[in-house]
Amino acid sequence: MIQEIPLEDVRNFCFIAHIDHGKSSLSSRILELTGNFGRETQQLAWEAALLQEGISLDDDGKPRDSIKPSSSKASSKERIDALDTLAVEQQRGITVKASTASMLYRHPSAIGPHKTLLVNMYDTPGHVDFGREVTRSLNFVQGAVLLLDSTQGIQAQTWSVYEKVKALAPNDPKLLIALTKIDLEAARPIHCAVAVSEWLQDWDGDPDSIVQTSARSRIGIRPLLEQVCEQVPPPQRLADDDDDDTSILLEPKTKQQQQQRRGTLRAQVMDSWFDSRGVNCLVRVVSGQLTEGDRVTLVVVASDSSQQQQQQQNQSSYPVQEVGLVVPHELRTKILGRGQMGYVRFGLRDPRQALPGTLLLHSDRVQTALSSKFILPQLPPEATVAKSVLYASVHPQEADGFEDLCSAVDRLALNDTGLEVQRTSSASQNEAVGGGSSKSSGGGGGPSLGPGLRVGFQGLLHVEVFRQRLSDEFQIDAVVTPPKVPYRATYLPSKFNNLTEPVTKIVEDLKDWPPSTISTSSYIIEEPMVKVRIVARVADAGPLMELITRKRGTQISTQPIDEEKWFLHCVMPWAEVVVDFHDQLKTLTQGFGSMDTFEAGYAESKLQKVEIVLNGDLVEPLSFVSHKDAAQAEGRIVCQKLKDVLPRQQFVIIIQARVGSKIIASERIQAYRKDVLTKSGKTVGGGDVTRKMKLLQKQKEGKKRMQATGKVQLTQAAFNSVISRS
pTM for the full model? Predict the structure, then answer.
C-alpha cells in the first residue's frame, strides 16, 4: 500500500512551540488516532473523537455520553511521550531532539487508489538551546503547527519559532495555530486566540480557525489532523525529475526497467544516529526510488555549483541493507519512493560522513547527478553550520578513558549537530597524562584533569544534556569544565610589543587571555552582547528591572501584549545571561516569565580574569572572567563554594582566588587528623611521653610530605560551583 501512494498524497508537517506547551503529548495522541500504537488505543482515540461530534455509540448500538476515564488515563500515561525516546528526555520531561513518525490516514483529499494520505510528522524541541533542530526541521516540511498553552498564551519562544517560519519566505511552510490544555481550569482559549490574531500580523489565518485541543482529554485531535490534511500542501516535484511514474511505485522485473522507472535518486539525510549495526540515516526521497540492494554514494552539496563535484564525501559505494518507515518504531518496507521519509542502513561506520544535508545518490549516476543539469537540494547554512555560543573542556574520569571519550563524542555529535568538537593532538595528550598542560585547542586540562576535548555548545542546558547523554547512552562519566563565552581581545601598538597596527584575537579558552604582565592600556577586551526578549507579567516589572540592572543590562524598553503581560527588551552581556539569569527570571516571576536571545555583536568592558589556585597550583579550568567591580565578591563566593564541595584530604587545602598576582579571596579546608596515640582503644606508650612525641613527630613529617606531593581530586561538583556565582 505504501508503494501506491503518489506524491500528491504526502503531507509533511511539524509541531513548534514554547517549551512545555504540549507538543510531544499532542503528537502521541495523533499517532493513537492513526493506529500507530495498535488497534486498542486507536479505538479509544476514535471513540473520543466521535464523542466530541455527538455520534458515539456503545456495543449495543445505543448512544453513550461518556468514556471510561480509567482507560483514557491509563493510555495517556503509557503513550503520552512516545516520541521522546532519549533517556534524558524522559527524565527531564523535555524534548531535546527532533523526532519523526509516519502514519496513514484516510481522507477525502487523497487521489490515490486507496484514498489514504501518508502523513509525516515532526516533533521539535521547545528550548532555545535546541533551536537549530527547529530550523532544520522547518526546511523538511510544508506545514507547521504553532501550539500555544491556553493558560499562558504567547511566550518568548512562541514568537521566536514564529519568526523562524517567516524567515523561510517565500518558501515558508503553511502556518496553522492550535491551543493546548483547554481542559484546565486556568485555560483562557478566547483570550489567547484574540492575542494571537493581534500580534501575529503576518498570519493569514482566522481566529475562528484556531483549533482548541487537549492531549490529556483527547479533545480536538481529529479536527487538528483534518486541518493539516486539508491545508498543508504536498511536497513539490523537482523541475528536472526524470521519474516517468508520477503516481505508483512498482517492483521492476529487470534491471533495465528499474533504471528507467525509478529515475535519478536524490535522497537527503535529515538525521543520523549510531547503533551496533553502524550509522543509521533518516532520509527524505526528493526524487527517484531508494530500494534495498541499491549501491549509493554520499555527497555533500556546496553552495557553489562548480564545487559540487569536489564535495563528494567518499569514492566508495555502499549497498543499501535495509529501508523502511519510522512509525515511530522502525517498519521495514524495502523501498522508499519520491516524497517519502524513512530510515536506511548501508553499513557506514564513520559518523562524520552522514551529517544532515548529505545526499544519497545511486553510485552509477553520481557524475550525471552532479552535473549542472540536475537540481541538488541543500540546506541553508543556519541549519547545518554549528555556531557555538559557549565553550567547555570535556575530560574522562579515568586517565586511560580518553579514546573511549573521543569515540562516544563523535557518535553523539552525529545525532547532535549543535556540538562543535576540537580534538587534542597526540603529543599534547601524552604531555597532559604526564602532568603537563596541553597546548592544543584548549582540550588539555593540565595536571588536574589530563587530556580532553574542546566542545562548543548552544547554551547551558545543552551542556547539561550533553553530559547526561554521555552517561546514559555510552556509560561514560565525564568531567565538563565551566562553560565560557568567546571574548575578543584587541592588542594595540605600544612599547610592550612590536605591533604596527591593532591585532584582534578571539579568546575561547582563558589560557589565551592577555597575561597580567603587560599593561592593560596595551589591549582592549570586548565581550559578546545579546538582545534579550522577555515575556512576563506586568506585576513583575519591579523585580525584573532590578535583575536586569544587576546583570549590567542596558537599553531597556517595554511593549504591552495585553492588560496582564508585556514584552521587555534589553541588551545584556552574554556571560551574564548564560550563568543563572534564566533561573532567577523563573524565580522572580513564579515560573511565568520566559526569554529568548539574539546576537548583538561585541562591546568593550572592564573585565578581569579571576584565577583559582589550589595549594599554590593554578587550576586553569576553574578560572573565570568577571567585571572589575564584581571580581572580589564573585571570587569570594567561588572559594566558599569550593570549600563546601571539595572532599577533605590528609593534607590542608588552601583555596585562593587571584587577579594577576593579587589574592582577592581565600578559604582553607583543614586536613583529617588520625589519632596515632590510641590503638585498639588503649593509649600507646602508657605514661611514656617520649614515645608519644615520637609518634606525633612521625605523623607531622608524613603530613609535610603529603602536603608537598598530594593532589586535590576535582569532581564535577567543583566545576559546577563556578558556573553560578550569585
Answer: 0.79
Which segments of 198-354 are extended strands (E)? 211-212, 266-275, 278-287, 290-291, 295-299, 318-319, 322-326, 330-332, 335-336, 341-345
Cis geometry, peptide bond prior to residue 328 (ω within 30 degrees of 0): yes
Q: What's the CA angle centered on 186, arms 184 and 189, to 5 degrees?
A: 80
The CB-side HSE value for 645 (13 A sphere, CA atoms) comes to: 16
State the alpha helices, DSSP H only, in 53-145.
69-79, 87-92, 131-138
C-alpha cell at 116: 489514504
Q: Answer whether 58's CB lies under 8 Å from 113's CB.
A: no
Q: What is the pLDDT of residue 386?
A: 66
Q: Is residue 30 within 8 Å of 224, Cβ to Cβ?
A: yes
Q: Which residues contact 538 (CB under 8 A, 6 or more apart)?
A: 560, 563, 564, 565, 566
**Which candidate, 167, 156, 80, places its Cα nearest to that of 123?**
80
Distances, alpha carbon 148 to alpha carbons 61, 70, 102, 459, 719, in Å: 38, 28, 24, 24, 37
pLDDT band at 395 (very low <50, low <70, confident <90, very high): confident
pLDDT for position 212: 92
List Cβ neighbours of 576 (8 Å cut-off, separation of 6 or more). 551, 552, 553
Facing residues of 658 across strands? 611, 663
Cα–Cα distance for residue pair 660/461, rounded to 1 Å: 32
Find the farthest-apart pair of alpha carbons in the chain and give their distance in angstroms, rounded: 106
479-494 per-position pLDDT tens digit = 888 888 899 999 998 8
Q: Cell 608524613: give the residue.
A: 702
Closest CA to 24 of 83, 64, 67: 83
The pLDDT tens digits of the residues spanning 246-255 come to: 444 445 445 5
- Given a cut of 50, whether residue 57 has pLDDT beyond it is no
H helix runs in 34-143, sequence order? 39-52, 69-79, 87-92, 131-138
d(CA 403, CA 472): 18
3-state secondary structure of 631: helix
Say if residue 540's pLDDT is above 60: yes
Which residues are paired to 455 by β-bridges? Answer: 392, 421
Residues 6+ apart with CB under 8 A from 390: 456, 457, 458, 459, 460, 462, 463, 483, 484, 485, 578
Residue with cell 555548545: 457
Provide mean pLDDT across the span 166-190: 89
Nearest to 142 by CA among 123, 163, 159, 165: 165
- Among 723, 169, 269, CA closest to 481: 723
H or E element at residue 608: strand 607-614
Identify the DSSP state of 356: T
Higher pLDDT, 418 or 220: 220
Which residue, 659, 661, 655, is CA-closest to 637?
655
- Cα separation, 4 vs 274, in Å, equals 31
661: its cell numbers: 598576582
Number of Cβ atoms within 10 Å of the Cβ of 43:
13
